[in-house]
Amino acid sequence: ICTDNPKTKLGLPEVKLGLLPGFGGTQNLPALVGVQNAMDMMLTGKDIRPNKAKKMGLVDLVVAPQSLEKVAIHTAKGLVDGTVKKSKPKKKSLLNRFIEDTPPGQYMMWQQINKL
Fold it and tell me: CA torsion sign, 67 to 73 to 77 to 79?
């Protein structure tokens, strides 16, 4: 859950300092947002805005700053008592499946990453 405040940014800022992402960033992020988006975040340290984060699967809800605490508490209670279901990973497009899940696609992706 994040706010739609213009100052809200998500990402891996430690990358900008030359550090590897911490707290499972390298293991959990690719499964959450896909290999391409994860590599972009891990290699460049780009900030992700709330609407893009929701579209790529990084967050489940984007709410107004005033309602963040209320929505977070309601969602946490719902997850505990089973009224709110855990979100499922976003389905990959056909192109993303080709790039991320096939040897030729992975080869092309790594060639692009090596250019960075």
Answer: positive
Please answer whether residues 87 and 59 qualify as being in contact, where contact means their C-beta atoms are separated by less than 8 angstroms.
no
Q: Is the pTM of this model over 0.85?
A: no
Cβ burial, residue 84 (10 Å; 0-12/13-18/19+): middle
8 Å CB contact between 38 and 96: no
Could you report the per-residue pLDDT of 61-98, keeping only the tens digit for each? 999 999 999 999 999 999 999 898 888 777 888 988 89
Alpha helices in the chain (DSSP H): 25-33, 35-44, 50-56, 68-81, 94-101, 103-115
Residue 54, pLDDT > 80, answer yes
